Amino acid sequence: MNQVKCLGKVYLVGAGPGDPGLITLKGKVLLEQADVVIHDALVSPSILTMINPNAEKINAGKRRDRHSLEQTETTQLLIEKAKTHAVVVRLKGGDPFVFGRGGEEMEDLVQAGVPVEIVPGVTSGIAAPAYAGIPLTHRNYSSSVTFVTGHEAVGKYRPEVNWQAIAQGSETIVVYMGVHNLQNIIKELIASGRLPETPIALIQWGTCREQKELIGTLENIVEQVEATGFEAPAIAIIGNVVNLHQILGNRE
User: Average pLDDT, stretch 205-228?
Assistant: First the structure.
């Protein structure tokens, strides 16, 4: 990739999972100073109100089967904006480096010679369970946790994830983007040794006012999803820590 002459710098900023109180102070300051903000679809409206009112705002969000911009177009747009603007913010839901393609975007920017800085954010895999009263680790329940993507490749089940190793290697499993492929994921986990009665929680719109939880077991959660019409965006937490939701959840 050819090196480009830049006026400014690109900041890959994590917006957090939705609650505006969870964005970092550094991220908020950058939004207030930004000349251009290129944001994802899942960034909450309350966080978008923090953006400098004079800044150019561009929606580059990706939802299932609906892309405002392709990934290559987003990266090229960042490069172009950095040529003419001092502060360019790429605002991503959660943390840019946790299933957010931040590493890919940063790699392309570095190769193009564009100054770039990462500003981490709170990832939904930690925040949503916390808001639901589900600690990912607990001395009496779990001393290990694995984060994994449940999103399938186009038109087929994603084969890259080693569900057998995950099922046997971690007491708590957090699955991002797994609702659409939940039946296949559960089948793989049970085949790999997870008990059908293992607790599972699905959390939709984590940390937002609309947050909802669906609690079940590996053997009955799919039936519950179908009966309730539960939909993405949501994450899944699998393991005995889910039982703590009965004690720690729904507290004011």
Answer: 96
